[in-house]
Amino acid sequence: MIYDEFSPSRTRRTLTAGGRTLRALGLDGPLTGVLALIVCIGILVVYSASGQNLKMVEHHLANIAIAVVAMLALARLATPQYLRLFAPVAYVIGILLLVVVDVTGHVGKGAQRWLDIGFLRFQPSEIMKLAVPMICAWYMHERPLPPTFTDLLVMGLLIALPTAMIAREPDLGTALLIASSGLIVLLLAGLQLRIILISIPLLGGAAWAAWHFIHDYQRQRILTFLNPENDPLGAGYHIIQSQIAIGSGGVFGKGYMMGSQAQLEFLPERSTDFIFAVIGEELGLLPCLVLLVLYGIVIGRALYLAMQGQDTFARLTGGAIALSFFVYVFVNSGMVSGILPVVGVPLPMISYGGTSMVTLLAGFGILMSLHSHRKLIGS
Amino acid sequence: MPRRVRIKDHWAEQRIFTIRGIVAGVIVAVLLLTVAGRLFYLQVIKHDYYAELSQGNRVHTDPIPPSRGLILDRHGVVLADNLPAFQLELVREQIGGMAELDAALARLVAIGLLDADELRGLKRTILSHHVYESVPLKLALDDEEMARFAVHRYEFTGVDIRTRLSRHYPFGAMAVHALGYVAAISEQDLTRIDSATYAGTTLIGKLGVEGAYENDLHGTPGYREVLVNAAGRPVERQGAYTPKLNTRQPIAGSDLILSLDMRVQRAAEDALSGKRGAAIAIDPHTGDVIALASTPGFDPNAFARGLTTKQYDALQNDIDKPLINRALRGAYPPGSTVKPFFALAALKYGVMTPEQTIFCPGHFSLPGSSHLFRDWKPKGHGTISMRHAIQQSCDVYFYTVANKLGIDRMHDFMATFGFGDLTGIDIPGEKPGLMPSTEWKRHAYKKAAEQVWFAGETISVGIGQGYMLATPMQLAHAVSGIASRGQIFKPRLVTAVRAPGSDTLTPRPVQQEPSLTAVAEDQWGVIVDGMELATGPGGTAAAATAGSPYKIAGKTGSAQVFSIGQNEKYNEKQLSERMLDHALFISFAPAEDPKLAVAVFVENGKHGGSTAAPIARKMFDAYLLPEKAGSPEKP
């Protein structure tokens, strides 16, 4: 294999030993660097947000270790050919696991999401976060772009099946995220503008219909989001406390490990979904903005790598991974700062616990593998 | 039309993706900037607002109740102080919802710490407080109850025992109708008081000095800022930060110095024990109330400890009405005690001279009327002058006086001694009694026929019967006006206030009312002579004053509980005890230089001379011969 970076004409700077190592591993330097920075910030914030609980930090580190191993393995070993073969397999396995969860799954917070296989507890919906965009990219790979009407129908079904199953668990938030990761592929594949324009009123109608099918607590979440002060001790509590935390932090913050909202537990889910509010309260406006910039760099770099993808599958998969990551960042920070409803989405690379870290780094592993394994001359 | 065959155009597809990717990148940038803008709005523009909300979240202000001012008698004897008590309290916030609250209360009933009948009222009180406030459930637990709660303590969250200062009355029931009492703040009280001033306080003054001087006694609460977590539990630090919290010490309430002399008070209550009645002693030169007794009384400590509904109902329904302050609220016919006042009126208006005599055949009738007004002495007093009419309490003499004065002049004169009006004593609950007049009757009745004043009605008022009603307090107030020869003072219980932590007393000014200048000095002399004779040989109160080293001037009285028909004979033995006449005695001593004026009233005590006068004698002895009364220090 010939790596373009190794060509002297394209390499403008001296390769360091670290850079050589990264390339040998199939990693992209800037992307890996910024991700590592965000993960490090996350470790510090989790220590504070957990109420200085070292056990939780240890668990968080273990999670990171698993995620890094997954990323390295995928970046080095998962060649585009393997990935393309694996995409439908992952999709089918994901669907089967969702069926299993539906039958035997663990009930957590009124929803069946978890699958317990002895040593590991995970949500099959996490697999779908990668499997859905990949199956769409896989489907479009051999077909000319932009997608035809038939293509759209097929992909629509491929997206709708897991979305509906996850929404039924019920986990509306994740269902919407997975649907959006699939829709991103359609958009990147060149979905015609007129179809986009026509589908807006259709989606509106669908939303209206969905309103009558969703669970009470989900409906309550949306209502509460629209007017949190209505129910300050009930469902509005999360939104109000989170905004108090961020707002009271001000420009300079209350100091690391000194936030009253976070440390005295007024802020719910302080080390998981609402950890962004801890940063806002304890560290202030500037670190929040820096974090947003870092996320922006990750997304931009990931999009740039995706654009360099050598075939449709690589480009669409990479683009979907990059933009899904953005969706997670936006949904979480929007929820915590009160411009989006409360949806159980962790802050990417920072929030404690769950399998999201593994899925995210696995995604970036795939993205980087697609980039590093591309051939100089098109096949 | 043949189907157009689409082939993959690698470069075109790459261009599509690149354009879409760039558009997506722009959207990403815009949305991330939106979040950044939102953060700017929250953290810069609305920072002050959210900082305040956050402060309110984490800092609770824990009130420190002030300690209530002491109440002392004129010699510094402590009548009310504060002792630590163990009280059962509940914090709603820590309990949870209504179901948990009900369960906790039911459990407290089950282990015998609360009474099932109280639950409803208790729950209302709990709900009228803020969720984070500690609400007392039971004010004073005894050792046995403390032990019982300790055993079951693990079953309760949000219910605990707290040590608080509770009110304590060393003399128990003594002087309770003057002191009043403190009791748990009721729902009604809450609507009236400033809840911030009473935060952390569980008891409030009711009636008496405790009620009237609540504002002086209560003090100013302090507070302690406490850092709390979301569960409402006090914590030391927020993460790595230990904030600086403010504390303000409470300011205790002011101490009150009363005019009461506990030696005289004790003498009055001992003498009244077992009777229903009232005794009041007043310093005629200041209006200071030296003793104010009303029996039966009740133990105010029980109220401070908290009464169950059952206990309260028992007091309320007691046939002897221990909760009624007879001294201030008992309006009775004053009987013959009014005679010295009407004698004075006769002199003032010139309808009689001191030496002028009338003949008393034992009955009196108005010209042209066959209705007989009987004298208490069926055989009559014969020829009698003013001094001896007072001495022997001749009814016919005063029927004649009343007939000559007419009701309106009687009313106007008596009003100057305070009859028919509140005396203005500085504790609440006083009743005005009734001094009738033609104008009063016009307003009191609706029907025209009933509004007419009849001459016969004047005759009854002449001996303190008929429409006339007076409270024992009014009688004491009026007789002290005779003792001081027309210098009338508003009665008062609190003579001075001592600010917390200070040794200096701030005296309350003596309040003098307009003096009776229309009565000449020698006219006072006639009345006082008559009252002195009444306590001497041949007088109505001779027995009670025998052997006293000082002279007592007094006037007995008895008031009919029900009226006797024209041809019936009054027979003591046939009447049930509660139908017997009320016994009264008004007096002052020493007669030539009065230092104390006393009014005694005994419900169904039959004769003023034999029942009421000996009580007054004991009070005079306690005041005028203190060496005999002994030390005042012991409760």
Short account of what is shown:
The complex is a heterodimer of chains A (379) and B (635). In chain A, 67% of the residues lie in helices and 3% in strands.
Task: Please give the structural blueprint.
The complex is a heterodimer of chains A (379) and B (635).
Chain A: H1 17-25, H2 29-49, H3 54-77, H4 80-104, E1 106-108, E2 111-116, E3 121-122, H5 124-141, H6 149-167, H7 172-188, H8 193-211, H9 216-226, H10 237-249, H11 260-263, H12 275-283, H13 285-307, H14 312-336, H15 356-372
Helix pairs in contact in A: 2-3, 2-13, 3-15, 4-5, 4-6, 5-6, 5-7, 5-14, 6-7, 7-14, 10-12, 12-13, 13-14, 14-15
Chain B: H1 10-45, H2 47-58, E1 59-64, E2 71-72, E3 78-91, H3 92-95, H4 98-110, H5 119-128, E4 134-138, H6 143-152, E5 159-168, H7 176-179, E6 181-184, H8 187-192, E7 203-206, H9 208-212, H10 214-218, E8 222-227, E9 247-248, E10 255-258, H11 262-272, E11 277-282, E12 289-295, H12 300-305, H13 309-317, H14 326-329, H15 339-348, E13 358-360, E14 363-364, E15 373-374, E16 382-384, H16 386-392, H17 395-405, H18 407-416, H19 438-444, H20 455-461, H21 472-483, E17 488-489, E18 494-498, E19 505-507, E20 512-513, H22 521-534, H23 542-545, E21 553-559, E22 582-589, E23 596-602, H24 608-624, H25 626-629
Parallel strand pairs in B: 2-10
Antiparallel strand pairs in B: 1-8, 2-3, 3-4, 3-5, 6-7, 8-9, 10-18, 11-12, 11-23, 13-16, 14-15, 17-20, 18-19, 21-22, 22-23
Helix pairs in contact in B: 11-24, 15-17, 15-22, 16-22, 17-20
Characterise the protein shown here.
The complex is a heterodimer of chains A (379) and B (635). By secondary structure, chain A is mainly alpha-helical. Chain A has two domains: 30-65 and 216-349, no CATH class; 78-214, no CATH class. In chain A, 67% of the residues lie in helices and 3% in strands. In chain A, strand 1 (106-108) and strand 2 (111-116) form a beta hairpin. In chain A, helix 7 (172-188) packs across helix 14. Chain A is globular and about 55 Å long. Residues 7-12 of chain A have low confidence and may be disordered. Chain B folds into two domains: 68-253, Alpha-Beta Complex (Penicillin-binding protein 2a (Domain 2)), CATH 3.90.1310.10; 262-629, Beta-lactamase (3-Layer(aba) Sandwich), CATH 3.40.710. Chain B has 25 helices and 23 strands. In chain B, strands 2, 3, 4, 5, 10, 18 and 19 form a seven-stranded mixed β-sheet that branches. The longest helix of chain B is centred in the N-terminal third of the chain and has 36 residues, at 10-45. The mean pLDDT of chain B is 88. The interface between A and B is large, with 65 and 50 residues.
